[in-house]
Each structure stands twice: as structure tokens, then as C-alpha cells.
Amino acid sequence: MARDGRSDTRDEPQTPKADRATRTDAGRSFEVPTGSLRLPRTDQREPVAVRDRVYHLRESEARALAVIGTFRVVPEAELRHLSPASSRADLRSLTEQGLVARSAATVNHQHTPLVVLTPEGKALLDAHVDAGEARQQYHQGLVKPRELGHDVQLYRLYQMEAARLEHDGGRITRVVVDYELKHDYQTFLHRRDRPEGTGHETDLQAFADAQQLPIVDGHLELPDLRIEYETEDGRAEHRDVELVTEHYSRGQLAGKAQAGFALYRAGGSGGAQGGSTRTGGTPLDPHHLEALL
Length: 293
Prior knowledge:
By secondary structure, the chain is α+β, with helices and mostly antiparallel strands. It has helices at 59-71, 76-79, 87-96, 119-127, 148-151, 154-167, 178-189, 200-211, 250-258; strands at residues 23-24, 27-28, 46-50, 53-57, 73-75, 100-107, 110-117, 171-177, 215-216, 219-220, 225-230, 236-244, 262-266, 289-291. A hairpin with a 2-residue loop joins strand 1 and strand 2 (27-28).
């Protein structure tokens, strides 16, 4: 393959259309919505301009960028589900074009190859996503390395709950991760038009009402993922999902359950046993999550 990303079809197998419905251990591998992205939708690489740069992408590479940007960090092994026949060539092309960065980290005592968006990769997605109040947000780089054991499982967490939603007739429209909600909350607390004398409890309730988030025992419950979807009859709904770790106390677990979140834990990790807030997440099992609620 050429350095500019153009396809050399002599040594890169193409992905047949019939193979697009990829598989995981639990069945189909659910991708993130890409309908709002104005990017190539064919097996042949096409030019994509961003400012003064021109990249070359095919559909499977655009889908990989969307997954990585949505969840900030994705284990390299998870990307193979997106395009089994060409995933290595896709990742090599995206890396050579400077759109993704590949690294490896010890996550919960396991050597784990990881992929993140570069600033250029995020800029490409942001430049080609349809504008709108509910547009998908994309993220670049690593922010909290000590939480990698948790964050690298969010894509698998999404797949599990997306499968349940689509089985019930839902159509996924957007994915919101916890740091987006946390950022929105801090922005709301420090807004310039905040009325003088407004108390914390008033702000807390106002934000919770606006975002349809529960308050349990005076604490705003924020999920790891919010999956927005459309029901069969056209209603806009969302599902809040949490990955439970062994560091959750009984009180934290009870709060998440009372909030109505869909709860999962890593298979074989044991139950939440109490303790402090997470600093590394559950032991990583990249192949299996168990639904608790």
C-alpha cells in the first residue's frame, strides 16, 4: 500500500458486502452509528479533504475511526470484528496517514495493544459529521491512563447493550460517554448566566432534570455510557449503562441499581466487593461481560 493511503489491491483482500455483519462471541458485532458521517461507503479508498490535507479512506476505515473516536480508546483486537478480511491493512493505512496512534499498555496485568485517534483523526471526523444538537462527539488520545482497565471495555459494554436494544426493535442514534456528561455538568455549574445566589442543590436538580439523570441520596448518578436510540414507533429514548468493577462499594452498586442503569461486569471477575472508587477497573476479559440488571 502506498504511503498516501491509496489502495494496492494486489496484497489487500477486499471485504465482501455479505461479510459486513461481523460477529462476536455473543453474535453480531454492533458498530456505532455512522449515518451522519459524510465519508466513503465503498471498498475502494477515496480522497477525503480536511483543511489543507487529503487522506484516502474506504468504508471499513471510516467505521473504525468512528468506533475509536466514540470510545476514545479501543483494544486493537476489538477492531478486527469490524472488517475481519482487511482489518490489519485498514489499521496500517490509518496509522501511516497519521489518523490513529497505536500503543501498548499493561492493563490489569495484561499486555494490551490499544488504538486512539490522533488530533488529525478527530479533526477529520469533526469536519465530516453533520452538524446538529445531537451530533456524535469524538475524542482523541488518552486522558486517564490509570483507568485504562475500565475504559478499554466500554466498546464491548456498548455492544452487549446495543444487541439487546436492537433485538427489541431499537435503532441506535448516538453514544454518549461519561466524560461528556461530566464535562457538561461542570460547564453548567460554571455558566456565565448562573443566577446569583443559586445553590448547589438547585443546580444539581436542574441539570438532572435537563439530562434525565437520577439523583440518589443526594448524589447525581452518571452512567459509563448513554445509548440514545429510536423505538419502533419513532420515540426518542435512551439507555444508561454501567460497568461494575470490584472496587464498587455496596452503596455504590445499590445507587447504580436504584438509578435504573443496565449493569454489567467482566466475566469471571467476581461481584462488587466494596472498597473505594475505581483506579484501574475490573480485570480485563475482552471476550465476555455478564449482565447483572
